[in-house]
Amino acid sequence: MTKTLYQVLTDLANVLNVLDHAGDHNGIQPIAIGVMNTATPPEMATIQGRPGHYTVVEGLHNAYLMLYADTEHLRELVSMLEGTPPPIDNVQRVQHVLEQITVVPAGFRLKVVKLLVGALGVDLDIKLFDPKGVIPFPLRYPSGENTFRTRCYTPTPLPGYDPGALPALVVDDHPEWVAVYDKAWALAFGNLRQPEPESGFVANFIDTAFNDNSFMWDSCFMALFGYYGRRVFPFIQTLDNFYARQHADGFICREINTYDGRDIFAPHNPNSTGPNIMAWTEWLNFERSQDVERLRVIFPPLVAYHRWLRDWHTWPDGSYFTTGWGSGMDNQTRVPDSILHHRHYTWTDANFQQALNCRMLQQIGNVIGRDEFNAELQAEFEHLEHIINTRLWNERERFYMDLAPDGSHSTVKSIGAYWGLLSDVVPPERAAHLIAHLDDPAFFNRPHRVPSQAADSDGYQPDGAYWRGGVWPPTNYMILRGLARHGQDALAYAIGRNHLKNVAQVFEDTGTLWEDYAPEYAGRGNPAKPDFVGWTGVSAIMIPIEYVIGLRPDLAHNTLTWTIRLTEQHGVQRYPFGANGTLDLICAPRPHDDSPPSLTVTTNIDFSLTVRWREQTSTWQLEPGTHQLQL
Predict the structure, then answer these.
(1) 529 and 608 part of one domain
(2) Phi, psi values for residue 625, rounded to 5°
(3) What is the pLDDT of residues 336-391, one digit of tens each?
(4) How many domains are there within the chain?
(5) Residue-wise over 244-282: b if at least 16 C-beta within 10 A, else e?
(6) Which of 28, 319, 440, 571 has its CA 20 to 30 A from that of 550?
(7) Number of H-type helices and E-type strands within the chain
């Protein structure tokens, strides 16, 4: 009968207790070593206690280091250790088996060897430390459950760009929107890459195509627009490579070299990581895919990463800091001289993002049946809610602003404050003030909406000057999500259409898409990288589909909502809905805005279509086939 991991570890604990029984170990600090096998799904258990008093519990319980091993190798080790002292051939076999066990963090390998065979007095020829002799930080629960770190890349061919396999945009009066959309997909498929052998990456990915590195911030937004092409290429798996490079203590670097997997920043460099929006990205992906199994595997690394940030990126009061690079908004003037340093400020976006992350992790935990972190996350959420609303709110400016160490507020209104519309910590009356600023020409309602810092701020530049006013696809999409969450669909449409119009105009003028755009005229930002998809796929793909044409899915209720505002013939063909649904959705041209829409919908699945037009809402339950619908 094959033994489970728990049973094998119990046998191992019993053997170790016998071997160590004669010693006086009462003064030795107890251990907690997690063990995961290579089965699918993996089994997990923890050896805990001290020499002579080891026990085993199922699951991982605050283990500070991990062993990854095949159960059969552990069983073989037990059988060899049961013969004391082992003959010389057993010493060689013990050494061979130990070499099959991966220790994380690697610097703790000596402790593992001493635990398993130290009582035998056996001299083993095993490399115990890395060449620099650096002892890493111990495991931060639950990073030991991160199965991405034990994966090996399976070579998989990359797909080519095939427009016929992707959703098709239909907007008869705006061929430039279609051209921008098609260009974005062509660039995206040109940026697909297979991992390099030395990188430690575990999945094919879309390259940021900025330099030789993958960027956490960019990859999240590329994974989002990639949802619409997921049946051709699994864009969301780009994030798998960040999980695969997670440190044992939970740290994930924000920028990783794609050739050798090297972190660009040391963990405690203040620029080393962020923004923390991976859980938000995964949740949006889940809302559209309903892939519960993916939630199960990404949950441990995301919780461990959240805990790392709380351990190392907070001030004594529990508020968070970041830097210009860490915030993703390099050179804003919100915090003086802060591109590479936090300047001891409390940063609005970092706190809003952590509050949002608390909510996302709670929701993921509820879906997968892991609520053991919910109380901790809720307590932190409430603490951040208090800090944000008592310390970061500037009543005179009616805006959330960064807090200086002397207690004064920054004088710059940053677009980073709008993460608050997604985080559930902003009271309705304050949300109304934030939203009003978006419609005010003195602040964010500029010719190209929405500048990254307000037009009334010191340092604002008409050409954008990167993040000193530049219009950026990721932050625009964040704002649209926040507006929709607060029932501001009309404003979201106005901003989305304005942004799409300007991006399309610059495309017509230059023949490409840009990293960022000028706020005061239809032009690329200065500086801005060309052929950037990159996150500009958000502007060319997601914003037209979701906020201009107006299609938003709700897979949890098998419903697609279509808000109709355009009068030309418009819609999407081959729209992916859920795991297997493919929809053609076309609204016929209308002579006037007050003319009721006439729709043609073809579907291969049962689903519910809700159509909103002006003040009317109609819902149809549709079966496979083609349907003519009239409001």
Answers:
(1) no
(2) 135, -170
(3) 999 999 999 999 999 999 999 999 999 999 999 999 999 999 999 999 999 999 99
(4) 3
(5) bbbbbbbbbbbbbbbeebebbbebeebbbbbbbbbbbbb
(6) 440
(7) 18, 20
